[in-house]
């Protein structure tokens, strides 16, 4: 190499084996597939989620019996700190974070209660900020860099025709949080990026995939904007995630990676 640095094999650079990674929202559609994929790749997992029964089901069904489990949602500083502390207590360190906890409330702005707006902002922005704060303290103290991945959405860059006056601003804030922390932590080799998917299969979007009048009508319109001609499956998330949490992305920070089949290209 021109720099004289020792060459690292491609397989080694994309490896997450032995990395201590915290996943918030671990029982959601993206959190679940992330947990399964990262476990298969040899990562050391700490799984956080508010639903203890769903966490137990995930651990059992996916065979994640070695994972640390924290039945909490990042609603306040102490809960966010508890998640990070659980990872450090189990594995002695923290190497990476995926913030997959979040929510949406769809309603026209003129009808939406302020409390519903605040719930979306708290879940999508405040919760991510709190986890980043707690994780950042540990990563900075360790002095060995790290990677933080925030789950955003294409709606952080694009408006929506109706009902998204809370969700879109929350994801725009998520994108800017990633960029801001990338700038703040860059000198410490802590990378912060966001993955921004378009529609992907989950319990909340099941109706969009359904073979009924509503589902067909939605797809007929929505898929015209996606060059690849389909919506995302949770498994489409894996490649981007492994890249961002591995050493393959050591010069990649402050970016919003659109996982959208080309939606934002049109």
Produce the secondary structure layout.
Blueprint: H1 10-13, E1 20-24, H2 29-40, E2 44-48, H3 52-62, E3 68-70, H4 77-91, E4 96-99, H5 114-142, E5 146-151, H6 167-185, E6 190-197, H7 206-209, H8 213-222, H9 237-245, E7 256-259
Parallel strand pairs: 1-2, 1-4, 2-3, 4-5, 5-6, 6-7
Helix pairs in contact: 2-9, 4-5, 5-6
Query: Which assembly state applies to the chains in this document?
Result: single chain
General form: globular
The number of distinct β-strands equals 7
Strand content: 5-15%
**Could you say which structural class the secondary elements and strand pairing correspond to?**
alpha/beta
Total domains = 2
Overall mean pLDDT score? 94
The assigned CATH architecture of the largest domain is 3-Layer(aba) Sandwich
| N- and C-termini, Cα separation | 38 Å
Order of H and E elements: HEHEHEHEHEHEHHHE
Number of alpha- plus pi-helical segments: 9
Rg, Å, rounded? 18 Å
Largest sheet: 7 strands, parallel
What's the arrangement of strands in the largest beta sheet? 3-2-1-4-5-6-7
The low-confidence runs, each spanning 5 or more residues with pLDDT under 50, are none
CATH topology of the largest domain: Rossmann fold
CATH superfamily of the largest domain: NAD(P)-binding Rossmann-like Domain
The CATH class designation of the largest domain is: Alpha Beta
Q: Helix share of residues?
A: 40-55%
């Amino acid at each position: 190499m021109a720099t004289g640095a020792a060459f690292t094999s491609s397989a080694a650079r994309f490896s997450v084996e032995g990395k201590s990674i915290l996943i918030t929202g671990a029982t959601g559609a993206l959190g679940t597939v992330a947990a399964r994929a990262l476990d298969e790749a040899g990562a050391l997992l700490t799984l956080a989620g508010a639903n203890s029964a769903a966490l137990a089901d995930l651990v059992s069904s996916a065979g994640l019996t070695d994972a640390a489990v924290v039945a909490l949602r990042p609603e306040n500083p102490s809960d966010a700190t508890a998640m990070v502390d659980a990872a450090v207590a189990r594995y002695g360190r923290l190497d990476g974070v995926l913030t997959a906890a979040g929510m949406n409330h769809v309603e026209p702005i003129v009808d939406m209660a302020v409390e519903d707006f605040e719930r979306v902002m708290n879940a999508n922005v405040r919760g991510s900020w709190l986890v980043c704060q707690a994780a950042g303290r540990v990563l900075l103290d360790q002095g060995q860099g790290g990677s933080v991945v925030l789950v955003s959405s294409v709606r952080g860059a694009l408006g929506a025709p109706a009902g998204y006056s809370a969700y879109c601003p929350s994801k725009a804030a998520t994108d800017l949080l990633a960029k801001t922390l990338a700038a703040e932590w860059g000198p410490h080799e802590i990378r912060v990026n966001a993955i921004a998917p378009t529609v992907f299969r989950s319990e909340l979007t099941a109706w969009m995939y359904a073979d009924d009048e509503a589902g067909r009508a939605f797809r007929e319109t929505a898929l015209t904007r996606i060059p690849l001609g389909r919506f995302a499956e949770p498994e489409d998330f894996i490649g981007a995630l492994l890249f961002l949490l591995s050493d393959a992305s050591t010069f990649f920070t402050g970016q919003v990676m659109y996982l959208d089949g080309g939606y934002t290209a049109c």
